[in-house]
């Protein structure tokens, strides 16, 4: 798989991540390419119809895994992308706030926040992840090093579901450029395919940048 080792977090880097999340949160995951780079990478993606959708099972993408101590991936994203986040001994947030860039809402209860997979698991499966090992799918579902995991309003995440950008886009039009840049990066990094309608939608979104 293309460039697999660049963003994955080996155990040696976990300590550095724990330090990093103490910095002021930006509510933006790392490694989002520029619009120009995203356009280039979109052009490099293989265009193909989705397949194997009927064999998808969410359990084939193990998450949320323990990252460090008592903290799992969801809790790490809440710490990374929240503001003034405090946690208890089990790593569950006891205070803080979270800005959802998809709809512009801010929440103070972690229960109101979902962690969205930018490229949904079912979408990834039908775009090539059906051929991956379970370990590789686990890496994808828990990727803290790229723009795959976003803290967003729970019902917005549920409305998105497994839809690609031809079927669903954030209600905040000002965010659609960033959304497309992040989506393309994840697809490119994991060497996943795009279908023709998806590519057309992403092209239009990148043209708003």
Automatic annotation (TrEMBL):
Domain of life of the source: Bacteria
InterPro entries: GmrSD_C
Signal peptide: 1-27
Pfam families: GmrSD_C (PF07510)
Keywords recorded for this protein, A-Z: Endonuclease, Hydrolase, Nuclease, Signal
Domain GmrSD restriction endonucleases C-terminal: 92-203
Record's keyword annotation contains Nucleotidyltransferase: no
GO molecular function, one term: endonuclease activity
PANTHER family referenced in this protein's UniProt entry, alphabetically: AMP-DEPENDENT SYNTHETASE_LIGASE DOMAIN-CONTAINING PROTEIN-RELATED, SECRETED PROTEIN
Protein name: HNH endonuclease
């Amino acid at each position: 798989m293309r460039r697999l080792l660049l963003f994955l977090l080996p155990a040696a880097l976990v300590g550095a991540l724990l330090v990093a999340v103490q910095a002021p949160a930006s509510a933006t995951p790392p490694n989002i390419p520029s619009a120009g780079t995203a356009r280039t990478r979109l052009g490099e993606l293989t265009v193909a119809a989705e397949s194997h959708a009927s064999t998808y099972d969410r359990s084939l993408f193990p998450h949320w895994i323990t990252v460090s101590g008592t903290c799992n991936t969801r809790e790490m994203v809440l710490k990374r992308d929240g503001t003034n986040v405090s946690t208890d001994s089990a790593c569950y947030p006891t205070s803080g706030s979270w800005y959802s860039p998809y709809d512009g809402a801010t929440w103070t209860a972690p229960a109101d926040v979902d962690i969205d997979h930018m490229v949904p698991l079912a979408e990834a499966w039908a775009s090539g992840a059906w051929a991956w090992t379970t370990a590789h799918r686990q890496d994808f579902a828990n990727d803290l090093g790229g723009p795959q995991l976003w803290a967003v309003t729970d019902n917005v995440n549920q409305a998105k579901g497994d839809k690609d950008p031809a079927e669903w886009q954030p209600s905040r039009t000002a965010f659609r450029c960033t959304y497309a840049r992040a989506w393309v990066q994840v697809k490119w990094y994991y060497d996943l395919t795009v279908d023709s309608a998806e590519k057309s939608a992403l092209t239009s979104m990148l043209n708003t940048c």
